[in-house]
């Protein structure tokens, strides 16, 4: 096993380069074992498999996914870093990025790449990219109850952060209570916990709290002066004031508060220098100007709760009229109709709605202020350009749906066509 250290691990045989280790994983649709020979032909140093595939450089293990986790866990055991684990229904990736940016200004900090946050992606990120940094920030995802506990057993957090618990993936987890139970496992399996005071379900003896209504670390005020977002944090030690360039939505301000709390809990200076140039990840409330209009790209993913936060943000800070271009929320299972009907009522708080019917679940988005709907991308683009984005339009156009809808393609098309 020691011979495997220092090699890049991959789970897709098409990505194998000479010297890589190919890990064969049996999925719902594809079995990686069928591609082990192809990986060897591409120069794989070794193939990790669960059964004999008659290759000279095979390493047979009982379970390849568990092997990945244990291999990554042993790497961390060698260096003994402080581990910050982050989970929640919304905002995990942005919070991970902000926390890591703040910490790295003072101490070498590792973070898992992109959204490699699962029982496969997280170990891969550690194996391939961790270089002994004394602090690591890990985003931990849950699709099924037990996923968070599994990741915490492998990578036990010194601080477990639970941001929020909503309806995302409720169709997979079963119900909202199950989602909460699963995400609460990060609290149960961490030395210390940092949780959302505004959610009354989140209470425990070892918990510290962030929030807007009270807690250990409080976002007391957030104000946009046209150029900077001014944040006031309150702790038992008094108030702290920060000015960050541009508009920071409430969710991102909360992420900064979490970073403030994590640095305090680790006894590291809160240094926001890297936040002065921080850009939101693509599809997470990206603000574009199109003539006099605001285009807001929030297309990375969607749940009812994240829709609610986004619309509240726009109503408070952006000019009317406000139109939303929306699509389906995925992985809601038997709750799909219920949450899409709730969304329909929510959308009636703005001036008009366009529905992109690429995914079947969107049939249940039926607000009274519906302007247009189509399953064709070009028809949606044409309607927006012809009926909304007139030269004199000075309002706001908000785009949001689950990632599978690919609503970002419509945003990109509008921005390209207008800027061409």
From TrEMBL:
EC number per UniProt: 6.3.2.10
**Broad EC category:** ligase
- Give one GO molecular function term: UDP-N-acetylmuramoylalanyl-D-glutamyl-2,6-diaminopimelate-D-alanyl-D-alanine ligase activity
Q: Which reaction(s) does its UniProt entry say it catalyses?
A: D-alanyl-D-alanine + UDP-N-acetyl-alpha-D-muramoyl-L-alanyl-gamma-D-glutamyl-meso-2,6-diaminopimelate + ATP = UDP-N-acetyl-alpha-D-muramoyl-L-alanyl-gamma-D-glutamyl-meso-2,6-diaminopimeloyl-D-alanyl-D-alanine + ADP + phosphate + H(+)
Q: Which UniProt keywords apply?
A: ATP-binding, Cell cycle, Cell division, Cell shape, Cell wall biogenesis/degradation, Cytoplasm, Ligase, Nucleotide-binding, Peptidoglycan synthesis
Its subcellular locations are: Cytoplasm
Give residue ranges for domain Mur ligase C-terminal: 283-367
Q: In which pathway does it act?
A: Cell wall biogenesis; peptidoglycan biosynthesis
The record's annotation in InterPro entries points to: Mur-like_cat_sf, Mur_ligase_C, Mur_ligase_C_dom_sf, Mur_ligase_cen, Mur_ligase_N, MurCDEF_CellWall_CoF430Synth, MurE/MurF_N, UDP-N-AcMur_synth
Q: Which residues form the Mur ligase N-terminal catalytic domain?
A: 11-61
Q: Which GO terms describe its cellular component?
A: cytoplasm
Keyword Cell division tagged: yes
UniProt record, GO biological process? cell division; cell wall organization; peptidoglycan biosynthetic process; regulation of cell shape
Domain Mur ligase central, by residue range, is: 86-203
Which NCBIfam families does the record associate with it?
murF
Described by its record, this protein's role is as follows: Involved in cell wall formation. Catalyzes the final step in the synthesis of UDP-N-acetylmuramoyl-pentapeptide, the precursor of murein.
Write the protein's name. Answer: UDP-N-acetylmuramoyl-tripeptide--D-alanyl-D-alanine ligase
Q: Which organism is it from?
A: Fervidobacterium pennivorans
Lineage, please?
Bacteria, Thermotogati, Thermotogota, Thermotogae, Thermotogales
């Amino acid at each position: 096993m020691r011979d495997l250290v220092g090699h890049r691990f991959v789970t897709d045989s098409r990505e194998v380069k000479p010297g890589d280790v190919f890990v064969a994983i049996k999925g719902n649709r594809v079995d990686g074992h069928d591609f082990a020979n192809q990986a060897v032909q591409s120069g794989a140093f070794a193939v990790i498999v669960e059964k004999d595939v008659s290759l000279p450089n095979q390493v047979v293990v009982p379970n390849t996914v568990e092997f990945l986790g244990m291999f990554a866990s042993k790497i961390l055991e060698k260096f003994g870093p402080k581990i910050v684990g982050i989970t929640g229904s919304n905002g995990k990736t942005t919070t991970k990025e902000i926390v890591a940016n703040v910490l790295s200004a003072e101490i070498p900090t590792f973070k898992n790449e992109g959204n490699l946050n699962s029982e496969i992606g997280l170990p891969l990120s550690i194996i391939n990219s961790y270089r002994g940094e004394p602090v690591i920030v890990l985003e931990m995802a849950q699709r099924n109850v037990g996923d968070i506990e599994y990741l915490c057993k492998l990578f036990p957090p010194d601080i477990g952060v639970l941001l929020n618990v909503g309806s995302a993936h409720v169709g997979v987890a079963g119900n909202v209570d199950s989602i909460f139970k699963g995400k609460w496992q990060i609290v149960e399996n961490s030395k210390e916990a940092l949780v959302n005071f505004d959610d009354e379900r989140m209470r425990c003896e070892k918990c510290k709290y962030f929030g807007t209504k009270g807690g250990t670390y409080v976002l007391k005020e957030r104000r946009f002066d046209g150029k900077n977002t001014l944040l006031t944090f309150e702790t038992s030690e008094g108030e702290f004031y920060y000015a960050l360039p541009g508009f920071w939505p409430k969710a991102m301000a909360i992420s900064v508060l979490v970073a403030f709390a994590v640095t305090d809990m680790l006894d590291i200076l809160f240094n926001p220098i890297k936040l002065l140039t921080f850009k939101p990840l693509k599809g997470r409330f990206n603000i574009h100007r199109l003539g006099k209009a605001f285009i807001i790209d929030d297309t990375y993913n969607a749940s009812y709760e994240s829709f609610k936060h986004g619309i509240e943000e726009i109503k408070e800070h952006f000019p009317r009229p406000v139109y939303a271009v929306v699509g389906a929320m995925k992985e809601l299972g038997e709750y799909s109709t219920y949450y899409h009907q709730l969304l329909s009522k929510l959308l009636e708080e703005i001036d008009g709605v366009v529905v992109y019917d690429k995914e079947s679940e969107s049939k249940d988005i039926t607000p009274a202020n519906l302007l247009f709907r189509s399953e064709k991308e070009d028809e949606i683009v044409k309607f927006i350009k012809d009926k909304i984005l007139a030269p004199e339009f000075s309002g706001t156009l908000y785009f949001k749906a689950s990632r599978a809808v690919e609503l970002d393609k419509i945003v990109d098309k509008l921005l390209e066509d207008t800027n061409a």
